[in-house]
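All the exercises in this workshop are built on plain-text protein records. An example says more than a description, so a record of this kind follows:
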Amino acid sequence: MTSAVAVGGLAKSYGSVHAVRDVSFTVEHGEIFALLGPNGAGKSTTLEILEGFRARDAGQVGVLGMDPGDQAEGRELRERIGLVLQDIAVEPYLTVRETLARNAGYYRWPRDVDEVLGLVGLTELRRRKVRTLSGGQKRRLDLALGVIGNPSLLFLDEPTTGFDPNARRSAWQLVRNLRDAGTTILLTTHYMEEAQELADRVAVIAGGRIVSEGTPDTLAGRDNDGARIRFGLPHGFAVTDLPFAASRGDGLVTVETTDPTRTLHELTGWALRRGAVLDRLTVDRPTLEDVYLRLTDPGAPAGAPERSVR
């Protein structure tokens, strides 16, 4: 079976500005793929080409086995994809249900309107005018409009912007449910926690190029990065009293290590022998956000520096 999305050597320029340069990646059927990148990195241009809104200069693009740049295949492709864009124009004086029912009429095999209202948590608001909805509620309606056509592939562009934490987690579960039901999802987001929670694979684009690709846990060698142990220095002790090199800042001592098990054992043994309490003790590795910042801005501080101790 071919990939749901296959991109090879994609290029797009605007005059002397090279927005996309030799971009290649695939999205497999039934997975959530996150395309991450800062503003101006080429992310939006890439998505617009995949969605059929913009012509490419070079490269090969296949979306559900079709070329989005081929007008002859355009109608069939639009029938099979769903879009949740950052700004969707809807009639403000229609009710929520009327809006969804009208859009359902554009598709040959739409999902049931009331089913979709329940799916996105808008059943109780189905008779409300669109203009009376809050920002988060309007974003739920955007999601509903994206899935009403029962798409095989769903493009989600910043889907939870404006959501409170509870609404965001509900939306995450909705996205997972869609994936589990067989929908392929291509996601963009500036929330690294969202990418960590949802994506099966991620790719980071910067300067018009893909700079790294992998799972959220292994991106750019994240799973092999050193760990960071942090704690409050016990009263009456100095950093130089510790059994290894450490630094102090923000009221906490930081120890960087490639062997957190051994280092933590030495640290707790040192504290027990002295009757000292290690307040606020934590052990962590670089987050997805740390790795993303390192990939897109080499000057940004990493979550766990390269230097290590044993």
